[in-house]
Specification:
The complex is a heterodimer of chains A (about 270) and B (about 475).
Chain A (H helix, E strand, L loop, with lengths): L2 H5 L12 H15 L2 H25 L5 H27 L1 H5 L13 H13 L1 H17 L4 H30 L3 H16 L6 H5 L1 H9 L1 H14 L4 H26 L10
Chain B lengths: L10 H7 L4 H15 L2 H27 L3 H27 L1 H5 L13 H13 L1 H17 L5 H29 L3 H16 L11 H10 L1 H14 L8 H22 L16 H12 L32 E5 L3 E5 L3 E10 L8 E9 L8 H4 L4 E4 L7 E9 L4 E11 L11 E2 L3 E6 L10 H32 L1
Parallel strand pairs in B: 2-9
Antiparallel strand pairs in B: 1-3, 3-6, 4-5, 4-7, 7-8, 7-9
The chains are: A mainly alpha (about 270), B alpha+beta (about 475).
Chain lengths: ~270, ~475
């Protein structure tokens, strides 16, 4: 973020023109999207989705997986790849700027840390709709006109947005605490990898009481199970909701910690 | 790293230091820094924590679903490889970009150090945590494997595969570190590559079958290592049989080493300027190459699958022996393309003089030649069908569907298994004549019409991503013209 752009409109004469979070968001969006960083991530994302879609389409032809299951795998892959983008942007957003001392000019402005964090949060979240939009053609082709496409788009969108908000929020909390972007990036990617571990466990275990508890604790695994039940098995929300509760709760908790506790403690300067 | 103080800087010292080559000095210094600085130890604590958590989970799982000890051995060794790689990866990702950022490499400019020797020293030092991670894993393997006979073999293969994977991933992270402008970039790119290799293991098993699925497995060294280890340790396959998977790991390690030593190491920049944007010729070159991008020209030709099916007359029946049951099929052989389904009917007949017991008809598929073993569950939605007791002379028909997954020569046979009269009795299963199934390769290059989307979407996205770069370049050239 170039602080000068945010700082300038905060002069007393024009302070009421736009809220600070909006100015931060606009500036961040411009830098992320026009700077090409998000676009580079999305190119990588589309390459990974292309490979996945080709493999899944081959599986459909070979009758290896039912079409509904193929769509679940495609949506889950989209989530796994897509969330990574927001996480990487969020992890660097505060600690990276503090390293480069580009946050310090904000000390001269009357902006509240919470508003800075809100602007950065929304801008880091902006990559997810782009990823979801890119996923659309893949899902349309893979669904082959099946009605499962509707529920895949709805639930993929809802669950993906929840997880994206959670991951971006988490990465911002880590970034606020971290002294360097290297540390924040490492912690965030480690947490991301850890959230994928339960999926490695065999199905028999995940069906046991201990496995269900583990699934409910891990929002990513829980979301994946929810998608499997709603899209893959066609279960209604009334039956599958416990698995949606975990990502909802995790997202709300993360946002509460971010805006209620971490954001007010945001330091704009690096420690000496 | 303050290696410069150990190196033969002044001519007067050169004779005294001639005994130790530079790479050895670098290695010793790095080794001491890594191990006494506590960085490796922190990562090893993290490693042992992850191993403990996964071991507890696996033990719980084993008690619930009675996983055989040999499988527990395999899973634990695999975990130690997967997590152990992470330690070397993180160290290597920081090795050059981090030191360049901290300007601790610059003193080496005053010494006659060759970049390749520096890389060798650092590379060997970054590999040192792997033996210890394997050592830490031994108690976990021993406890979870309950002293199973497969433990020595699994550890030996694990050491070999883990060593190869460590070389591949540590080397890759070091290449990225040499090329990266910042420590942040190298760490991010290294972990991203690690995750990209890790993510396909999340897919359900059925999504990784078929020729393409197996190809992806072989191309991904992590998956290939897992497949090799599982088949050799758990399924008692020979190393020779699963050699393609082992070769994937060997090629990965060898390829990375070649690139590291022959391409990346000679271009290593020691000065901080190299890490600053626009200063390094190497970086400028790499950036322009990346922006130019490889020309992605893939044929959009779709080769429709050709229907090659030819059915033969019904096969002869087989006598039911003591049970009086016989089973016939209406198909003797068929040739299909991978992806096609075949349907056939079996008839179970009571040829005896008394009412038969209730029975089950089970289908099995055997590959007649070399290659991947068949998992019938992948090939057919229904493995068994029940048959009620049959009066003398009565018969019952069953419909079967088999999906051809992989090319090859197969024999399908069905077995009637009458229920025994009690715990102290048994029956004689009766098998049908074989159905010889020849499966041709999967020939569709555009499965499900996905290829245009799979090609156009990344291309369109890449074109959009070029716009900001193009605008910056135009602005830059306009400013330089004005200047």
């Amino acid at each position: 973020m170039t602080a000068g752009t945010v700082a300038a409109p905060l002069a007393p004469a024009r302070r009421s023109a736009a809220p600070v979070w909006w100015l931060v968001l606009r500036q961040e969006l411009t830098e992320l999207w026009m700077g090409g960083r998000v676009l580079t991530y999305l190119v990588l994302y589309s390459l990974l989705m292309s490979l996945t879609a080709f493999l899944l389409a081959t599986n459909t032809e070979l009758n290896l997986l039912p079409l509904r299951q193929n769509i679940v795998v495609a949506v889950t892959s989209a989530l796994t790849f897509g969330l990574f983008i927001g996480l990487a942007i969020g992890a660097e957003s505060i600690s990276g700027e503090r390293e480069r001392a580009t946050l310090e000019p904000l000390l001269l402005t009357p902006c509240s840390p919470r508003q800075v964090v809100a602007g950065k949060f929304l801008s880091a979240l902006s990559a997810w709709p782009g990823a979801m939009l890119l996923t659309l053609p893949y899902l349309v082709v893979l669904a082959q006109g099946h009605t499962v496409l509707g529920s895949a788009l709805v639930w993929g969108g809802v669950v993906g947005t929840l997880l994206a908000a959670m991951f971006v929020g988490f990465s911002l909390i880590v970034s606020i605490w971290s002294e360097s972007s290297r540390v924040s990036l490492f912690i965030c990617l480690l947490a991301y990898a850890a959230s994928l571990i339960p999926a490695q466990l065999p199905t028999e275990f995940l069906r046991s009481p201990a496995g269900v508890v583990l699934t409910l604790i891990d929002p990513v695994e829980s979301a994946s199970t929810y998608l499997d039940r709603t899209i893959g098995s066609g279960q209604p929300l009334s039956q599958a909701w416990p698995f949606l509760a975990s990502p909802v709760a995790a997202t709300l908790l993360t946002l509460a910690v971010l805006f209620g506790w971490a954001a007010p403690r945001l330091r704009l300067m690096a420690r000496a | 790293m303050s290696i410069a103080q150990d190196l033969p800087v002044a001519p007067a010292h050169r004779t005294a230091r001639r005994a130790a080559p530079v790479w050895w000095l670098v290695f010793c210094r790095e080794f001491v820094d890594l191990w006494t600085g506590g960085r490796v130890l922190v990562l090893l604590v993290l490693f042992s924590l992850i191993m403990s958590v996964t071991s507890v989970l696996r033990q719980l799982e084993s008690q619930l679903s009675l996983i055989p000890p040999v499988e527990m051995v395999f899973l634990t060794v695999l975990s130690s490889i997967t997590f152990g790689l992470f330690v070397g990866l993180v160290i290597a990702a920081d090795s050059f970009s981090g030191e360049r950022e901290r300007a601790t490499l610059e003193p080496l400019l005053l010494t006659p150090v060759r970049p390749r020797q520096l890389v060798v020293g650092k590379f060997l030092a970054a590999l040192t945590p792997w033996p210890l991670t394997l050592l830490i894993s031994v108690p976990y393997v021993w406890v979870l494997g309950q002293g199973d006979d497969s433990i020595p073999e699994a550890l030996l293969l694990g050491a070999m595969l883990g060593g190869l994977m460590s070389i591949a991933f540590t080397g890759l992270a070091m290449i990225i570190s040499i090329w990266s402008r910042s420590n942040r970039t190298s760490l991010f790119a290294s972990l991203l590559v690690y995750l990209i290799f890790l993510i396909p293991t999340q897919w359900p098993g059925s999504a990784q079958k078929g020729d393409l699925g197996y190809l992806v497995q072989q191309l991904n060294p992590l998956q290939a290592s897992s497949e090799f280890l599982e088949k050799v340790v758990v399924n008692n396959r020979t190393v020779a049989e699963k050699m393609p998977y082992l070769m994937a790991a060997i090629y990965a390690a060898g390829g990375v080493l070649l690139v590291l030593m022959l391409v990346a190491a000679p271009r290593l920049r020691l000065d901080v300027e190299a890490s600053r944007p626009g200063r390094s010729r190497w970086h400028r070159g790499a950036r322009s190459e990346a922006l130019a991008g490889p020309a992605l020209v893939l044929a959009l030709l779709s080769v429709p699958a050709l229907g090659l099916g030819t059915a033969a007359a019904a096969a002869p029946s087989v006598s039911g022996g003591a049970s009086g049951l016989s089973i016939t099929t209406d198909l003797a052989y068929k040739t299909v393309n991978a992806g096609q389904s075949i349907k056939f009917t079996t008839v179970v007949k009571n040829t005896g003089s008394t009412t038969s017991a209730a029975s089950n008809v089970a289908m099995n598929i055997i590959k007649t030649g070399e290659g991947e073993p068949v998992d019938p569950e992948d090939w057919s939605p229904e493995r068994t069908q029940g048959v009620d007791p049959l009066e003398a002379g009565e018969s019952d028909a069953q419909q079967w569907t088999v999906n051809a997954i992989l090319k090859g020569d197969y024999m399908i046979y069905l077995t009637v298994i009458p229920e025994p009269a009690g715990a102290d009795a048994t029956t004689y299963p009766v098998s049908s004549p074989g159905i010889h199934l020849t499966v041709k390769a999967f020939e569709k290059s555009n499965p499900g019409g996905v290829l245009p989307v799979a090609i156009v979407t990344p291309l369109a996205m890449a074109a959009i991503a070029m716009v900001p770069w193009w605008r910056r370049r135009r602005q830059g050239s306009a400013e330089s013209t004005e200047g």
